[in-house]
C-alpha cells in the first residue's frame, strides 16, 4: 500500500513539474560577463557559414543567400567551434509565422556590397544574447560576436520569477497533499492494527463452553 502511495505521488509530481524548467539563469548579466565561453564569443572574431558542407562552393553561396532571405542560417565561431542555428526575425520569441518574417534590421544586403549584415536574438546557456556580424557572400566567412540582450533579459527575468513563484506554490500544494495522504495511511494502518489485535485476543482467549451432563 505504501509503495502504491509513493508511486502515485511521484507520478503526480512528475506530471505537474515536467514543463516548469526555467529558460534562463537567475543572474544573466553576471553569467555573460564571467563565463569563459561568453567572454570569448563577446569579442569580434571570425565566423563561417557551415550549411551544406558537402556541396560545391557555388551551390553553397546560393543556399546561404536563400537561407538569409528566409530568415535563418547555420554559422560557427571559428575560435571556439561553436555552431549556432540562427534565426533572423524581429520577434524570435513569437510562435506566429507572421512575426518571424525577417526585416532589414536583421538581414541587410545593402550596407556593404558583397556582404550581408545579420542580427539574431536567442537564449544560449540560460542567457539572453544577440548575435551581430556580417558574412562575405562569396567566401562565406566574416566577423561576428555576441552581445548581452538586456531588453529580452528583463522580460525573461520576469518570466523566471513567475515560474519560481508558481513552482513554490505547486511544491507547497504537493507537500500538503502528501501530508494528508500519509496521515490517512497512518490512520488506516492503525485501524487495521486494532482489528488484528482484537482478532488475536479472541483467538488466544476463546469463550468457555459449558456442557450439561444431566
TrEMBL record:
Coiled coil location: 157-199
Family to which this protein belongs: Belongs to the CBF-beta family.
Pfam families in UniProt: CBF_beta
Chief localisation class: nucleus
A GO molecular function held by the record: sequence-specific DNA binding
Keywords: Coiled coil, Nucleus
Gene: 106078269
GO BP of this protein: regulation of transcription by RNA polymerase II
PANTHER family noted in UniProt: CORE-BINDING FACTOR SUBUNIT BETA (PTHR10276:SF3), CORE-BINDING FACTOR, BETA SUBUNIT (PTHR10276)
GO cellular component: core-binding factor complex
Superkingdom per UniProt: Eukaryota
Location of the protein in the cell: Nucleus
Organism (species): Biomphalaria glabrata (Bloodfluke planorb)
Protein name (database record): Core-binding factor subunit beta
Amino acid at each position: 500500500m505504501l509503495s502504491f502511495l509513493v508511486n502515485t505521488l511521484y507520478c503526480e509530481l512528475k506530471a505537474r513539474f515536467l514543463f516548469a524548467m526555467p529558460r534562463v539563469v537567475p543572474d544573466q548579466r553576471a553569467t555573460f560577463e564571467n563565463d569563459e565561453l561568453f567572454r570569448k564569443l563577446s569579442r569580434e572574431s571570425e565566423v563561417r557559414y557551415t550549411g551544406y558542407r558537402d556541396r560545391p562552393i557555388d551551390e553553397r553561396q546560393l543556399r546561404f543567400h536563400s537561407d538569409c532571405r528566409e530568415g535563418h542560417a547555420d554559422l560557427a565561431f571559428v575560435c571556439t567551434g561553436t555552431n549556432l542555428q540562427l534565426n533572423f526575425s524581429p520577434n524570435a520569441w513569437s510562435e506566429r509565422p507572421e512575426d518571424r518574417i525577417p526585416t532589414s534590421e536583421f538581414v541587410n544586403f545593402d550596407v556593404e556590397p558583397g556582404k550581408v549584415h545579420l542580427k539574431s536574438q536567442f537564449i544560449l546557456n540560460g542567457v539572453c544574447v544577440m548575435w551581430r556580424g556580417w558574412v562575405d557572400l562569396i567566401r562565406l566567412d566574416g566577423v561576428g560576436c555576441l552581445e548581452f540582450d538586456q531588453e529580452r533579459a528583463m522580460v525573461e527575468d520576469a518570466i523566471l520569477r513567475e515560474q519560481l513563484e508558481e513552482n513554490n506554490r505547486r511544491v507547497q500544494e504537493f507537500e500538503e497533499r502528501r501530508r494528508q495522504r500519509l496521515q490517512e495511511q497512518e490512520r488506516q494502518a492503525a485501524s487495521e492494527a486494532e482489528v488484528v489485535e482484537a482478532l488475536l485476543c479472541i483467538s488466544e482467549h476463546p469463550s468457555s463452553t459449558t456442557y450439561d451432563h444431566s
